[in-house]
Amino acid sequence: MLLATLLWLQESSGAVGWSPVALWHQMGTPAKLVVVVLFIMSVMSIGVMVDRWLVFSGARSQSRQFAPAVAGALRDGKLDEAFKIAERNKKSHLAKVVTAGLAEFQAHDASPDLSGEQIEASRRALDRAEAIEHAELKRGLGSLATIGATAPFVGLFGTVLGIIDAFTKISTQHSSGLGAVAGGISEALVTTAIGLFVAVPAVWLYNYFTGKLEAFDVEMDNSSSELIDYFLKRTGRAATRGAK
Question: Which of 244, 221, 222, 237 is nearest to 109 (CA)?
Answer without folding.
Answer: 237
